[in-house]
Write a structure and sequence with these properties.
The protein has 268 residues and is an all-alpha fold. 73% of the residues lie in helices and 0% in strands. α5 (84-100) packs antiparallel against α6 (104-128).
Length: 268
């Protein structure tokens, strides 16, 4: 291992430690991520428990920064993930800081950049460094698959925070969404649902189920949080579709029907 490669891996560890520290400090304070999103109030808000996804992402990323030191992960970590883990972590922290400071337009712009950064890793690993064993799936592909789907979901939620808001009566009661908000709501649902389906169908129906299900998890959270008939049941339909679509190969197999997607990987 060259000196340059050692430095890159060491920086990955330091950046991960910084990411964890910043997150712990955030969630132990008064302005954690769930509280910040709740304070903005939109018709696309998810239930606060959706942010528990971060725990799983950070656990798997912790596995990545350890696994990268093993010989079997060397090429994938250096040339598949590269410096984009560092970039994505910095963008993630910057996005949160901007959102906390109510710089909503900038935070949305950063959230989109983060999606592109993680997309580079996601597609690079899929195209050039396929998983050879369960360690690869769990600590190389799964963290970035989960992070990629989650970042897409968060970018859409941030867009609603940036460009929309709720209408209230004088006593603070939230009014039902108007036609414009309903249209925007269903555009957001359609985008996330089609993205989840796209993950499953990626590369000839041998796609990524992890990314699809994390978006589905987010849609369930929106269904739970939104009380209005015009949005509540639409979110339920999207959540059901995006939950069942990744399970399609297993459902067909249980019914005794063959499918070209039954070998779709669960992790990465």
């Amino acid at each position: 291992m060259s000196h340059e490669h050692t430095i890159q891996k060491a920086i990955n560890v330091l950046v991960y430690a910084f990411l964890i520290t910043a997150t712990v400090l955030s969630f132990s304070g008064n302005d954690n991520l769930a509280d910040i999103f709740s304070s903005f109030e939109t018709y696309f808000d998810p239930a606060p428990w959706v942010f528990t996804v971060w725990t799983l992402i950070y656990l798997l990323l912790g596995g990545f920064v350890i696994y990268q030191w093993f010989d079997q992960a060397h090429e994938s970590a250096l040339h598949g993930v590269g410096w984009h883990f560092i970039l994505s972590a910095i963008l993630n922290t910057l996005w949160f800081s901007l959102l906390e400071g109510e710089h909503k337009v900038l935070s949305f712009f950063i959230s989109v950049l983060q999606v592109f950064s993680i997309s580079f890793v996601f597609y690079k690993l899929e195209a050039e460094f396929p998983a050879n064993n369960w360690w690869d799936r769990l600590f190389l592909h799964a963290p970035f698959s989960l992070w990629h789907g989650w970042s897409v979901f968060i970018a859409v939620v941030t867009a609603f925070v940036t460009f929309t808001g709720v209408k209230k009566t004088e006593d603070g009661t939230i009014l039902p969404p108007n036609v414009l908000h309903i249209v925007l709501f269903y555009i957001g649902l359609a985008f996330l649902s089609l993205t989840a389906i796209g993950y499953v169908e990626y590369k000839g129906q041998k796609g990524d189920l992890t990314s699809a299900w994390v978006i589905s998890f987010g849609l369930w959270a929106i269904f739970v949080e939104q009380p209005f008939v015009t949005t509540h049941w639409g979110a339920l339909a999207a959540a059901i579709i995006t939950t069942l679509w990744p399970a399609k190969p297993y459902i067909l197999r249980a019914l005794g029907r063959s499918t070209t997607s039954e070998n779709a990987p669960l992790l990465g």
